[in-house]
Amino acid sequence: MARLIVPDVVSKQDLSSLSPNETVLAAAKLMTRRKIGALLILDDEKLVGILSERDIAGRLVAEEKAPGETRIAEIMTPKPETIGPKASVMDALQRMQEGGFRHLPVEEDSKIIGMVSIRDIYAAVREDLEEAVLEREAFISGSGMAGLP
Question: Could you give the domains of the chain?
Answer without folding.
Answer: 16-80 (3.10.580.10), 81-143 (3.10.580.10)
